[in-house]
């Protein structure tokens, strides 16, 4: 499971030795995130985001459990109970704002984490399973975030639930039956709110379970690194602790700073004012938009405006789900043996265009639909799919990568050749 | 072949330990039968777990709505509630009926005549769900002074779907006409929807 030169857990204290024989939990921690896990020595700060995502999940679970002590999942009182959390519960405003903005922080760091994987080819063999489990976590996160947004039972909650469960009614023949089954009624109501609350409480623990698998699968080949070159020997690695626990702590501090800025200075920046109006099934808000992290997918959904064999609505739903399911096939769509985009000049450019494209989709998802915006969304949607299905396979076959370093150590020494310790030694 | 675990003790007859090599063996049969029984039991337990998600009796009990139409003047519309969804009831004017009947079916995205969307002899009563067939918003036009859109029927502010006087989709992203629920006239001025 690890490199042969990994340090072995050798407890010195009699108590720890006793524990190690009965329940080797400290040994597990030592080998997973301690000195027993050798990691490439050249990881940059993009490698912080896995730990940051784990921290964000922890924050969500802790604040969420506390909020559940004050929240009532009943359509008659849910909105009022949120208001009571904000006004009456001691530090309730803090917990709720932390949970709401914590969700945004979680999705933000996960998007960067996914982007890191795309740039440095972390999805490629031998780490395909790590990537696949990551996509599963992403899907679970989206479901959890959506159901959590419904719980305050404001206007956006209600109409978001209406629109998103409406996706299922696009399925031919059985769609309406499925939708009624999912909602437990003909429109979102008490039954839907209750089951969303139950699942919103359950899914984070499912996510935590899949994260364990994600890390387990990662620790078999070990972490990727910015060069994408495999570890060749002991000189290429350092122990996870203290080197990367320290580096992750720095990232965690920056994460907390950004989180605090959002939480204390602009807690409603990413929310919608309409959600402070109680759900009203007879009146639709003028402009229904999902949370920022769903906007690119919402843009793809909205891009289908004409029927073509199937209903435009069904196409939209298929494309939206397809845009995520596509990621499951990524390890096999990109056949280039070179992982890191640092050595793939053409792929690097197209990945930059894809990033822009997703930002454009995000803009389109939140904008009022005018003909120009719809056309922009359609072009951006086509490009999104083209990137993965056409551009990526062609680039992988035709591009000539730059020469790779022989080893991680060679790359590190080369990078620091100009500013080695000799200069400062000479200055002394 | 005598392995350690099926060796015949010395001095005893080996006969009762021999099994006839028929296929499937008795043990396989018991194994398959036991697992199948457990499997059927598991499915029987899953069914109520799935079915509990379906609308409960009290939700279904609200699935019919009685409406009194006597107060609705020609040209007026009301918003009622049917299965927790808005329901539009409109008393069409002769001019609106005429304009709906003037449209040729080939122009329509979801071709239906006004007669198909109303009850015989009651063509002035247009009863539809107030749920846009695009993404489920409530269209404008049923309330006094609301924007009725370029076709004089209903107009959805979310993504700009416009419906005509027969609540048929004419423009915008919605795929279908506003849904006409099942209903019956129980008297000249009352209907039961659902």
TrEMBL record, chain A:
UniProt: a ubiquinone binding residues: 219
Cofactor, how bound (note): Binds 2 heme groups non-covalently.
Domain spans labelled Cytochrome b/b6 N-terminal region profile: 15-227
Organism: Sphingomonas gellani
The protein's name: Cytochrome b
PROSITE patterns assigned: CYTB_CTER, CYTB_NTER
Transit peptide found in the keyword field: no
Residues annotated for heme b b562 binding in this entry: 99, 200
Transmembrane segments: 45-73, 93-118, 130-151, 157-175, 196-217, 249-271, 292-309, 315-334, 346-366, 372-396
CDD domains in the cross-refs: cytochrome_b_C, Cytochrome_b_N
UniProt entry tagged with the keyword Chaperone: no
Subunit structure, as described in the record: The main subunits of complex b-c1 are: cytochrome b, cytochrome c1 and the Rieske protein.
Family: Belongs to the cytochrome b family.
GO cellular component term, pick one: respiratory chain complex III
Compartments where found: Membrane
UniProt: heme b b566 binding residues: 113, 214
Function summary: Component of the ubiquinol-cytochrome c reductase complex (complex III or cytochrome b-c1 complex), which is a respiratory chain that generates an electrochemical potential coupled to ATP synthesis.
Membrane topology: Multi-pass membrane protein
One Gene Ontology MF term: metal ion binding
Record-annotated Cytochrome b/b6 C-terminal region profile domain positions: 230-406
Cofactor dependency: heme b; heme
Domain of life: Bacteria
Major localization listed first in the record, in broad terms: membrane
Keyword vocabulary terms for this entry: Electron transport, Heme, Iron, Membrane, Metal-binding, Respiratory chain, Transmembrane, Transmembrane helix, Transport
Gene Ontology BP term (one): respiratory electron transport chain
InterPro entries: Cyt_b/b6_C, Cyt_b/b6_C_sf, Cyt_b/b6_N, Cytb/b6-like_sf, Cytochrome_b, Cytochrome_b_C_euk/bac, Cytochrome_b_N_euk/bac, Di-haem_cyt_TM
TrEMBL record, chain B:
Claim: rRNA-binding is one of the keywords in the record: no
EC class name: translocase
GO cellular component terms given for this protein: plasma membrane
Membrane topology listed for this record: Single-pass membrane protein
Residue intervals passing through the bilayer: 29-50
Keyword Iron-sulfur listed: yes
Catalytically driven reaction(s): a quinol + 2 Fe(III)-[cytochrome c](out) = a quinone + 2 Fe(II)-[cytochrome c](out) + 2 H(+)(out)
Family annotation (SUPFAM superfamilies): ISP domain (SSF50022)
Annotated keywords: 2Fe-2S, Cell membrane, Disulfide bond, Electron transport, Iron, Iron-sulfur, Membrane, Metal-binding, Translocase, Transmembrane, Transmembrane helix, Transport
Obligatory cofactor(s): [2Fe-2S] cluster
EC number(s) from the headed UniProt entry: 7.1.1.8
Rieske domain sequence ranges: 100-192
Localization in the cell: Cell membrane
Classification via InterPro entries: Rieske_2Fe-2S, Rieske_2Fe-2S_sf, Rieske_Fe-S_prot, Rieske_Fe-S_prot_C, Ubiq_cytC_Rdtase_Fe-S_su_TAT, Ubiquinol_cyt_c_Rdtase_Fe-S-su
GO MF terms held by the record: 2 iron, 2 sulfur cluster binding; metal ion binding; quinol-cytochrome-c reductase activity
Cofactor note: Binds 1 [2Fe-2S] cluster per subunit.
Ranges for region Disordered: 1-22
NCBIfam families: Rieske_proteo (TIGR01416)
Quaternary context: The main subunits of complex b-c1 are: cytochrome b, cytochrome c1 and the Rieske protein.
More about this protein: The Rieske protein is a high potential 2Fe-2S protein.
Described purpose of this protein according to its UniProt entry: Component of the ubiquinol-cytochrome c reductase complex (complex III or cytochrome b-c1 complex), which is a respiratory chain that generates an electrochemical potential coupled to ATP synthesis.
Family listed: Belongs to the Rieske iron-sulfur protein family.
Name by which UniProt lists this protein: Ubiquinol-cytochrome c reductase iron-sulfur subunit
Species whose genome carries this gene: Sphingomonas gellani
């Amino acid at each position: 499971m690890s490199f042969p030169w990994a340090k072995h857990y050798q407890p010195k204290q009699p108590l720890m030795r006793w524990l190690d024989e009965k329940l080797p939990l400290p040994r597990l921690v030592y080998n997973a995130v301690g000195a027993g896990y050798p990691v490439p020595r050249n990881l940059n700060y993009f490698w912080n985001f896995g730990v940051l995502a784990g921290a964000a999940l922890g924050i969500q679970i802790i604040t969420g459990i506390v909020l559940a002590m004050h929240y009532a999942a009943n359509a008659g009182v849910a909105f009022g109970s949120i208001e009571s959390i904000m006004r009456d519960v001691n530090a309730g405003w803090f917990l709720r704002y932390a949970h709401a903005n914590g969700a945004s922080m979680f999705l933000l760091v996960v998007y960067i984490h996914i982007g890191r994987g795309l740039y440095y080819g972390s999805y490629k063999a031998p780490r395909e399973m790590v990537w696949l489990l990551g996509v599963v976590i992403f899907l679970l996160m989206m479901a959890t975030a959506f159901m959590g947004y419904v719980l305050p039972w404001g206007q956006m909650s209600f109409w978001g639930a209406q629109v998103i469960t409406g996706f299922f009614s696009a399925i031919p023949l059985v769609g309406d039956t499925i939708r009624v089954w999912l909602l437990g009624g003909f429109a979102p109501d008490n039954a839907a709110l209750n089951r969303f609350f139950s699942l919103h409480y359950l899914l984070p623990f499912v996510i935590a379970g899949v994260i364990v698998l994600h890390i387990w699968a990662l620790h078999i080949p070990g972490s990727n690194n910015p060069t994408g070159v495999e570890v060749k020997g002991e000189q290429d690695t350092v122990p996870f602790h203290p080197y990367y626990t320290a580096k992750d702590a720095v990232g965690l501090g920056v994460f907390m700073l950004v989180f605090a800025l959002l939480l204390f200075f602009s807690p409603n920046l990413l929310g919608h004012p309409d959600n402070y109006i109680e759900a009203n099934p007879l009146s639709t808000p003028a402009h229904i938009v999902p949370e920022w992290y769903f906007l690119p997918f919402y843009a793809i959904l909205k891009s289908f405006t004409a029927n073509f064999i199937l209903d435009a609505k069904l196409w939209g739903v298929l494309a939206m789900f397809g845009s995520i399911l596509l990621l499951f096939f990524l390890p096999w769509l990109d056949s280039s043996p070179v992982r890191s985009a640092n050595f793939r000049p053409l792929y690097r450019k197209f990945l930059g265009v894809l990033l822009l494209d997703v930002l454009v989709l995000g803009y389109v998802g939140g904008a009022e639909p005018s003909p120009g915006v719809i056309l922009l969304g359609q072009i951006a949607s086509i490009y999104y799919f083209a990137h993965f299905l056409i551009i990526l396979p062609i680039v992988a076959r035709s591009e000539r990568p730059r020469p790779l370093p022989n080893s991680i150590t060679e790359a590190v020494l080369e990078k620091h050749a100009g500013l080695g310790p000799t200069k400062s030694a000479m200055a002394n | 072949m005598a392995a350690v675990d099926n060796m015949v003790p010395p001095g005893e007859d080996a006969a009762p330990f021999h099994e006839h090599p028929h296929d499937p063996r008795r043990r396989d049969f018991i194994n398959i039968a036991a697992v199948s029984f457990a499997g059927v039991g598991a499915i029987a337990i899953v069914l109520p777990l799935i079915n509990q998600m379906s609308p409960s009796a009290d939700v279904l009990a609200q699935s019919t709505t009685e409406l009194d139409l006597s107060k609705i003047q020609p040209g007026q519309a009301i918003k009622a509630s049917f299965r927790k969804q808005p329901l539009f009831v409109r008393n069409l004017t002769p001019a609106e009926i005429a304009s709906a009947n003037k449209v040729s079916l080939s122009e329509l995205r979801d071709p239906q005549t006004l007669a198909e969307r109303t009850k015989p002899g009651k063509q002035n009563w247009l009863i539809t769900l107030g749920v846009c067939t695009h993404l489920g918003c409530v269209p404008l036009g049923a309330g006094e002074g609301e924007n009725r859109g370029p076709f004089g029927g209903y107009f959805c502010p979310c993504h700009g779907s416009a419906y005509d006087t027969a609540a048929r989709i004419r423009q915008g992203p919605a795929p279908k006409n506003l849904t006409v629920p099942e209903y019956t006239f129980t008297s000249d001025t009352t209907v039961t929807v659902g």
